[in-house]
Amino acid sequence: MYVFRNTFTDRKGRTKQAAKWYCDFTNAAGTRCRLPAFTDRKASEALGRQIDRLVACRASGESLPLDVQRWLEGLPDAIRGALHKFGLLDGQRLAAGRTLIDHVGDWRAFLLAKGNTEKHADLISSRAKKVIDGCKFTYHCDVSAARCMAYLAELRDGEHGISAQTSNWYLQAAKSFCRWICRDGRATSNPLEYLQGLNVRTDRRHDRRAFDVEEIRWLLDTAATGPAIRGLMGPTRAVLYRLALESGLRAAELASLTRESFNLAADPPTVTVAAGYSKHRREDTLPLRPETAAALRDVVATTVPSMPIFHMPRHRPMAETLAVDLEAARTAWLDDAKTPAERKSREERTDFLAYVDSAGRYADFHALRHTTGSLLAASGAHPKVAQSIMRHSDINLTLSRYSHVYNGQEVDALAKLPDFGKAKSKTTRRRAGASG
After folding, report:
1. Residue (of 188, 190, 173) closest to 71 by Cα position
2. Which residues are 272's β-sheet partners?
3. 3-class DSSP assignment, residue 115
4. How far apart are CA 232 and CA 236, in angstroms?
């Protein structure tokens, strides 16, 4: 291998040398090749030495040394493309030089082919893109764990910064993306692999609470007689809330339900979520109470087949709709007080039907699912049964995050324990008998 510069004749007939150097070498197949290198001779000679190593590895069939693999990842696209043309790089090594944003597009396609929903693929790929753009990573060789953590710390900084949980989601997406790049043979290492997420318990921004039974009754009654909100009629909203509370279905799953999803004539009545809409990509069939099935019949009967039963707003989350109903329910509850003293007592219960309680916990639409888990626990249902209804893969999720303790449950539990008073001796018992 040697490097040279071409000569050319300018308009005045003078012989000059081109600015760019060339590497002249013979590839593993014995073909003579000429590769445009750099304007700097030393850089071009260094490129030539690495090409010699590539040729030797290709001829012997040996795997590329780690330092050569990393060197390839940092090469300009034009040089990498030329090496592929000369038979020194395979397709996957060529892909290693594409920008990370290009790879994210391929990753998203992989996730869809794997069976993930478009919504899920868009969500995690957008999170990975945010980290890549924020850290100013262009190629895989630019990825740095330190820069990634510094960027996430910037996002968390300040009063309106993201929570530790959101920060962990961004980190998880970036790590998953880098892991896929390595598994697909496009890179040799994952610089983010060793990074750990934050302890979310030290930074809770959007904890949910569970509704108690009295709150649920006021919410359903008020919604059923209330006006339409964002296209959802009051009676329909009441049935929607009731179904969410009983089944534990998520908002996206509820939005996917059609007439075909229900078998209200069965014993027991059931609702089925198609695998494409279930979070764990599996068809789920859940039982319904007869009273809920009866409330659903009118709504289901008036819906066009194959159309969604509940036209839930897309651009405005259901949390906002629920917040309106909660405010109306609290107003109705306060107005229902029989005396001024009773109203004052109710006004002091600031957490009752509140969207955000005094502990900073939210009563948004997903809180209905938390209520399902909490009511199952309070009813004495076996933990495995509760896990099955909630469709959790880990029972710890059912017992810890989704099972809230209601007011008075601890007192009731303690009251059921045996009396641990001091045992009386035989002499004391005989004296007590004699005096009686």
Report:
1. 188
2. 285
3. coil
4. 7
Q: Tell whether omega for the bond before 268 is within 30 degrees of 0, i.e. cis.
A: yes
Among residues 232, 218, 247, 423, which one has the least CA distance to residue 332?
Answer: 218
When mean pLDDT is compared across 24-28, 35-39, 110-114, 204-208, the lowest value belongs to 204-208
Task: Give me the count of residues in the chain.
Answer: 436
Mean pLDDT of 86-112: 80
Contacts 24+ apart (CB under 8 A), 347-355: 352/214, 352/215, 353/215, 353/218, 353/219, 353/326, 353/327, 353/329, 354/326, 354/330, 355/322, 355/323, 355/326, 355/327
Longest dimension (CA), the chain: 137
Alpha-carbon distance of 27 to 179, in angstroms, equals 33
**Where do the CATH 1.10.443.10 domains begin and end in the chain?**
211-419
**What distance in Å separates the CA atoms of residue 320 and residue 368, rounded to the nearest whole number?**
14
CATH 1.10.150 in the chain, residue ranges: 100-202
Report the pLDDT value the prediction gives residue 411, as an integer from 0 to 100.
61
The closest alpha carbon to 127, from 81, 180, 166, belongs to 166
Which one is predicted more confidently, 274 or 185? 274
For residue 80, the model assigns a pLDDT of 80
- In angstroms, the CA 353 to CA 254 distance is 23
Cα(301)–Cα(57) distance, integer angstroms: 71
Q: What is the mean pLDDT of residues 48-70?
A: 83
Compute φ and ψ for 244, nearest 5 degrees.
-65, -40
Rounded to a whole number of angstroms, the CA Rg of the chain reads 33
Would you tell me how many other CB atoms lie within 10 Å of the CB of residue 142? 16
pLDDT class of 380 with cuts at 50, 70, 90: confident
- Give me 319's structure tokens: 């949390």
Q: What is the pLDDT of residues 147-196, one digit of tens each?
A: 999 999 999 887 678 888 899 999 999 999 999 988 887 777 789 999 99
327 has pLDDT over 90: yes
Report whether CATH 1.20.120.450 matches the domain 211-419. no
Query: Of the candidates 158, 159, 161, 132, which has an alpha carbon nearest to the alpha carbon of residue 147?
Result: 132
* Chain centre distance of CA 114: 17
Domain 100-202, CATH: 1.10.150
Query: Based on the number of CB atoms within 10 Å of its own CB, is 160 exposed (0-12), middle (13-18) or buried (19 or more)?
Result: exposed
